[in-house]
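Hello forum,

I keep getting stuck at the same step: I have a sequence, I want structure tokens, and every attempt I make locally crashes halfway through. Rather than fight my setup again tonight, could one of you with a working pipeline run this one for me? It's a single chain of 363 residues.
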Amino acid sequence: MRGLRVVVIDDEAWTRDTIKRIGKWKEFGFRIVGEASDGHSGLECIKELSPDLIITDMKMPGLDGARMLRVLDEQKSKAKVLIISGYTDFTYTKQAVASRAIDYLLKPINAEEFNTALKRCSLELRTEQRARGPQRETTIMQVVDRNWFEQYKSVRDSVGYSLETLSSKGIEHALSQLEQLYLHCESTVRLAVLIRMNHDLQSIIEEYLISSGSQMAPHLLSFAVGEQCTFTDLRKHYLEVISHLIEEKVSENQSLHHFDIRPVKQYLDDHYQENLSLEQIATMFSVSKEYLSSRFKKDLTVTFSEYLLGLRMERAKELITEYHIPLSKIPEIVGYIDISHFYKVFKKFYGITPGAMRESCER
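Reply #2:
Ran it on my machine without issues. Output:
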């Protein structure tokens, strides 16, 4: 059974932070998948992210909580609603009752009351989930064309890869690509696209935090989408967050290891025939590719590529001069799929072709 999804809607950042801080989210099976700072953006978050629980303020600029709930009623939303408000206005209370809100809590929020409401909501939702069975997820595929979405998935995956490999340049490039995709959308769907991008970027970082054992306060990680938000706001936020995580991890790795290049060198010596890349090896040894590249040059006086090339060429020469292996088989043995490419590289490295080298040894 999937986790329970939550969207938090409140124009006050400190209230959203309090909600995130005091909630026993994991205990009750919840995960905050989106935040909004006004009713209009809140509706878009709900439409795009299909939450099981909506936590909302009532008094907000633009579309307030009462009108937002009326819209959700008209749309026959199945999501539970928990209201957090500083107002006891009868209009708000009446709408809360009409929308079957699970509770109406007044600010300042009492942690015990809040978690009691969360627990009750979790039990009701689990029961309803079992009765309904699997539900279809809403995605931005409904508002963008397939080609755009395929490009988006590719760039989104590159964000995760760049974070895993601690590549700051990769992150900057991926965020720039996301910005271009955002700008190529129709203005009418940009808010929905921004909400999905925000959700996916936060999910990528949360997965990284789990896998790397790093930590970050929820209020520093999350970004609340508002009606006036642009991709520039989103980009600035996540660039700061991810840059901080990368710098922290690189610093941690360097201080822990004082980085010894010898295990890396040994791994290449043993696996040179495999399809290896600087990024792959950097990930394996928990450093950035930029740092590994600089250490290779400093400690071994050659670049990563030059060292790997040297290993392959030395092994190829040994196979040519000392063994009677057909020349056509040697490229694959030393890590080359393309035979013509191997011949070209070999001649450039030694100044003669593999065939000429074998002939000279057989004279």
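The chain is about 60% helix and 5% strand. If your local run keeps crashing, start a new thread with the error log.
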